[in-house]
Amino acid sequence: MIRAEVVTADGRVVVASADEHPDLFWAIRGGSGNFGIVTSLEFRLYSVPRVHAGIVYFGIDRAAETLKFYRDWSATIPNELSTAVVLTKIPATEAFPAELHGTRALAIKVTYAGEADLAEHVLKPLFEVAGPRLAGELRTIPFGESAMGGTAARYLDLVDTLPDDLIEEFAQLTGDSATTVEIRHWGGAMAHPGPGAGPVGHRGATYSVIIDQEVPQLADVLRTTGRTFVNFLADPGRADSAYSEADLNRLRAVKRAYDPDNFFHLNHNIRPA
């Protein structure tokens, strides 16, 4: 994003960019709807005509081995590759054979912004550890048709590593057809923002762990960090946890400048300093 038109709490219409109202420009790129109503946006576009993407389902019996391998393998992959490992069940849709509907499985979600042969080469070791494929495929498709998708976040935490005991606990859920666990690798270019980047919090996290239900037996091993991304935050009362302390202090100062009475408060609220 390079420019935005914003209606502020006092009714002014201002343009926020690197050159005009730069403090507001910084804040709205990660600070949610706390500073005004954005009525137009201007973006710089980058050409990504096609990606190699999809979801491949494997048997669940090698879940622990696959996650342990994923932990090390994901540290070596290029920035062009986005992946997640999901313990879930095969959907009951026409895309999959009827005999597999509802089968507990390990899914690997992939989006690679590059050539198919390079993607397959990088993914081959992970797929070999996961074992025989049950269903699904990767295809080269227009970028606009691709979607990593996501898991409804009843629980979400950002973690820097995946310890063996946590992986083993995840693997114990293999017989539970109701619980979905998604481990998504972050890092990459997102972890190395350029100068002037907005206040997107906790960019350095290596993984997100998302669980779509409460699982009491995991409480002792999740070792919650309390960090989150505002995009995944269901509880508006925890908005502060989505930012670093320095960014939060700066956001509160910008809030004071543009909305000192906290008019925009029905959101993931940042209180004025």
Written description of the protein model:
This protein is of the alpha+beta class and 273 residues long. It has helices spanning 22-28, 63-73, 116-130, 164-171, 219-222, 245-258, and strands at residues 3-7, 13-17, 37-42, 50-59, 81-89, 104-112, 133-142, 155-159, 181-185, 207-211. Strands 7-4-6-5-9-10-8 form a 7-stranded antiparallel beta sheet, with helices on one face. A 3-stranded antiparallel beta sheet has the order 2-1-3, with helices on one face. A hairpin with a 5-residue loop joins strand 1 (3-7) and strand 2 (13-17). Helix 2 (63-73) crosses helix 3 and helix 2 runs antiparallel to helix 4 (164-171). The longest helix has 15 residues, at 116-130. The relative contact order is 0.18. The model has no long low-confidence stretch (mean pLDDT 90). Residues 238-271 form the Berberine/berberine-like domain. Belongs to the oxygen-dependent FAD-linked oxidoreductase family. Its cofactor is FAD. It comes from Kribbella sancticallisti.
Which key terms come to mind for this protein?
three-stranded antiparallel beta sheet, 6 helices, 273 residues, FAD-bd_PCMH-like_sf, Uridine Diphospho-n-acetylenolpyruvylglucosamine Reductase, domain 3, Vanillyl-alcohol Oxidase, Chain A, domain 3, seven-stranded antiparallel beta sheet, globular, alpha+beta
Fraction of residues in helix: 10-25%
- Summarize the helix and strand pattern as letters: EEHEEHEEHEEHEEHH
What's the number of extended β-strand segments? 10
Alpha plus pi helix count: 6
Which consecutive residue ranges, at least 5 long each, have pLDDT under 50? Answer: none
- End-to-end CA span: 26 Å
**What structural class do you assign from the helix and strand content?**
alpha+beta
Say what the CATH topology of the largest domain is.
Vanillyl-alcohol Oxidase, Chain A, domain 3
Family: Belongs to the oxygen-dependent FAD-linked oxidoreductase family.
Cofactor: FAD
Protein name: Berberine/berberine-like domain-containing protein
Domain Berberine/berberine-like: 238-271
